[in-house]
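Intended use. Records like the one below are meant for learning the mapping from a protein sequence to its folded structure. Do not use them to infer anything beyond what is encoded.
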Amino acid sequence: MATAGPAADVRGVVALPGDVADAGHRAALVAAAGELGGLDLLVNNASVLGAEPLVRLADHPLDGLRAALEVNVVAPLGLIQEALPLLLTSSYLSSYEEFTVRAERTFRDGSDGNGKAYDSHPYTENARNAGSSDSSPYIGTGGAILNISSDAAVEAYPTWGGYGAAKASLDQQSAVLAAEEPGLRVWWVDPGDMRTDLYAAAVPDDDTPGRPLPETVVPALLRLLDGAAPSGRYTAASVAAATGEVSVR
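Structure written out for the chain above:
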């Protein structure tokens, strides 16, 4: 989260640094989008760990957990509520054909966590049907919401309990939103391990080489958008594999 500062307008791009946990800042972001003509995609990527470095739940500061929930769960919902009128009037996705990927859930050790295939978008059926048995698959004509999740939301890693609980809450919130707003596409995506400042703060002693940079997952995220993928949970790795993309580290 950045320190608040003046807006900058460069070739139609308006930057509004601020704190997404601040309701006033969220309102300003949506107002800026409205002034530019509307909103097609909302990305919730801001995050805090709750403890730096990460600690076991027995030692986790409760104020840190509250902060993690505020930024990872409450703030995204607040921004979505603010942006919903603009997103529902977007027509960005209406001209795209449907994209489908159903990959198994994978974790850091390469397993799926429980030996079972994981449906990457289990809520799609309810979200895509218009309400009658003879309805054709529903293609949302509104905008899209991309919530950045984590494998810590679905797997029990020691010391990741506070952060993982916040991301798990974001996942469930995303799933319910997808069911309640069938006119939108809602994606909650695990981008995989990345070389970020957040990860360095979480595990400062981890010197594992070769961790990919964040920009390497961008093509997979764009594929969800450009392919108008159904609402659901995805991993960047499964999307890249399904579309034949090569990740460059």
